[in-house]
Amino acid sequence: MKNEIDNIYNQAISVIEKITNGEALEALRVEYMGRKQGKLTLLMKNIPDLSIAEKREIGPLINKVKNALTIAFDKKEKTLGQITNSENSFFDITLPGEKFNIGTLHPITQVRLQVEKIFQKMGFEILNPNEIDDDYHVFTSLNLPPQHPARDMWDTFWTENDLIPITHTSSMQNRAMKEKTPPFGVIVPGRCFRHEATDAHHEHTFYQVEGLYIGENINLSHLIGTILTFLQEYFQKELRYKIQPSYFPFVEPGLEFLVSCVMCDGKGEKDKIPCSTCGHSGWLELIPCGLTHPKVIEMAGLDPKKYSGFAWGMGLDRLVMLKYGIEDIRHFHAGDLRFLKQF
Ligand code: DAH
């Protein structure tokens, strides 16, 4: 019986080696190890007839062979599996590829880059504001001392240690004047924060581009020329303009710069329908500005008798909304891909 067992083992191992497909391997497994008619199984059925001494020898031997064959079958099955897989892994290079979602720059970023480019061409340098700044830079150095009633014009957030998430990017005026030698021009694109109840035109977080030019004998024509050049370049349109008085403590005179409405070309209506962008007036109040107040120049350590300048602060969100006809400022931060994918 020992010989028979050895033969069965040797036979099985040599056939297993030659097998090339899963079906044949399974048939072989049944032939040797099948529960009813397997060659090994049949031998085991003889065990009860053996003497005790034979049982002690044969029992463990059959078990050993059974385990060895199980391992051999399993191993072969694995290698066959790998061969079949690699045979099946035909790669069709004509199949369309998987699509990746590539993000785009946010419309505000796109417009900021455009605006920066236009002003850089005019010789302006870009300054980045501190998003959190102190009272001196946000208010006092701009001719807005503590308790000045005009501070009410800004709905300011304050931190517990009296710092300010900047309400406007004018916060860089004083630093620019201290750091640069006139004549110089800077723009300050940056994110601002106000304690606002939000609606279609107001957000607690929004963007401004401040501008400041300091030199000698600067007058309103420099200011008007700069702003008009920028707006015509940005909207790629001839625009009419007008200025009207306004008030900001850091400029004197303070002005509002208006241009003919870019939606209705200043007509106040389009296809007989009143233009909602300009409220039927044909004019857009676009950019608050003015000539830099002598006190602001003085506080930055420059002589206001020698130096003069102009400044403006425009809303970047508004520029984006006007260019693309966006009706609600809240789209910008809603994170809705249907909105963002249009740009
Ligand atoms: N800082 C002002 C604001 O946020 C805007 C502004 C007005 C800036 C007039 C200026 C300016 O530089 O001259 O409301």
UniProtKB/TrEMBL annotation:
Mg(2+) binds at residue 252. SUPFAM superfamilies: Class II aaRS and biotin synthetases (SSF55681), tRNA-binding arm (SSF46589). Tetramer of two alpha and two beta subunits. Signal peptide: none annotated. It is found in: Cytoplasm. PANTHER family: PHENYLALANINE--TRNA LIGASE, MITOCHONDRIAL (PTHR11538:SF41), PHENYLALANYL-TRNA SYNTHETASE (PTHR11538). It catalyses: tRNA(Phe) + L-phenylalanine + ATP = L-phenylalanyl-tRNA(Phe) + AMP + diphosphate + H(+). Transmembrane segments: none annotated. The keyword Ribonucleoprotein does not apply. GO terms for biological process: phenylalanyl-tRNA aminoacylation. Keywords: Aminoacyl-tRNA synthetase, ATP-binding, Cytoplasm, Ligase, Magnesium, Metal-binding, Nucleotide-binding, Protein biosynthesis. Its cofactor is Mg(2+). GO terms for cellular component: cytoplasm. Belongs to the class-II aminoacyl-tRNA synthetase family. Phe-tRNA synthetase alpha subunit type 1 subfamily. This is Phenylalanine--tRNA ligase alpha subunit. It is an enzyme of class 6 (ligase). GO terms for molecular function: ATP binding; magnesium ion binding; phenylalanine-tRNA ligase activity; tRNA binding.
